[in-house]
Structures are given as structure tokens and as C-alpha cells.
Design a protein that fits this description.
Largest sheet: 4 strands, parallel
Shape: globular
Strand order of the largest sheet: 1-2-3-4
Strand content: 15-25%
Helix content: 40-55%
Number of helices: 7
Length: about 140
């Protein structure tokens, strides 16, 4: 087992994809690669989509993010991806054509590509285990194992 950065990767699906990318963007000294499958990568857009649902469950949102406004905060992956990082992690984003988070993933990839090495994998399927099983195999092939 190695503790070297170049041997340390993080991945997740759905909200876990958000967590994996947040970890890589806030601790690039630890993670050389991060992968997201159907990730909730644009929380600002997600909060707007959820609208009143966020207001119905304000304590869950506040417990997770500390306050309602995520835009520009340390929880906003869009803002984090624009920061100068050294060293820079590499990213793998997988999302299905039928996934409700597809547009958020596309928007995030476009932003991430401005400053980072990123592979984007769009495939048939939705926000399902069938999709993630296939994507995980491609993620594992991408990792330098």
C-alpha cells in the first residue's frame, strides 16, 4: 500500500462524485486523480432546480454546507475548479444521456477544462447502477494501476 500522491485516487457516484471532486480540489496534495459518475457537480444549479425543496429542508442543507448560499463558497466546485492548484489532479467525469444531472455535468466539465486535465465520458443510460457499473470499469481502466 502506497501513501504517495501519485498512487492516491478518489471516486464517487451521485453526491459522492461531488465529494470526490471537492476532496481533490481542496487537497490536491493528497489526490492525483478523481472520478465522478453522475456527480452532483454544480450545487448552485442543483439548488436552483430543487428550489423550494431546499427551503423545506433548510437544516439538511445548512448541516451539509453551513449556510444556504453555496455560490462562490468553499462548497462550490465551479469556484474551486477556477483556483490555481499545484499540483493539479486529473479528473474523469462520466454521465449518462438520460441523467437528470447531465447539463450540470456538461457545464462543470466546460469550466474544469479551462484549467485541468479532464476526460469526459457521456454514455447511454440514466442515474442508475447499470450506468455506474459500466462507468466504473472505464474509470478503473483510466487509473494508472
Amino acid at each position: 500500500m502506497s501513501t504517495k500522491r501519485e498512487d492516491t485516487f478518489i471516486a464517487g457516484l451521485s453526491m459522492g462524485g461531488y465529494g470526490a471532486f471537492k476532496a481533490a480540489l481542496t487537497r490536491p496534495d493528497l489526490y492525483s486523480r478523481a472520478a465522478s459518475m453522475s456527480g452532483a457537480l454544480d450545487l448552485v444549479a442543483l439548488a436552483n432546480t430543487l428550489g423550494d425543496s431546499v427551503k423545506i429542508f433548510p437544516y439538511e442543507w445548512e448541516n451539509t454546507f453551513g449556510f444556504y448560499e453555496v455560490k462562490g463558497s468553499e462548497h462550490d466546485l465551479m469556484a474551486l475548479s477556477r483556483k490555481e492548484l499545484s499540483p493539479k489532479p486529473s479528473f474523469y467525469v462520466a454521465c449518462g444521456d438520460e441523467d437528470a444531472l447531465l447539463q450540470d455535468n456538461l457545464r462543470f466539465v466546460e469550466t474544469l477544462q479551462e484549467t485541468h486535465d479532464v476526460i469526459y465520458d457521456q454514455h447511454p443510460e440514466g442515474h442508475t447502477w447499470k450506468s455506474w457499473d459500466k462507468a466504473l470499469k472505464r474509470v478503473l481502466m483510466w487509473l494508472p494501476l
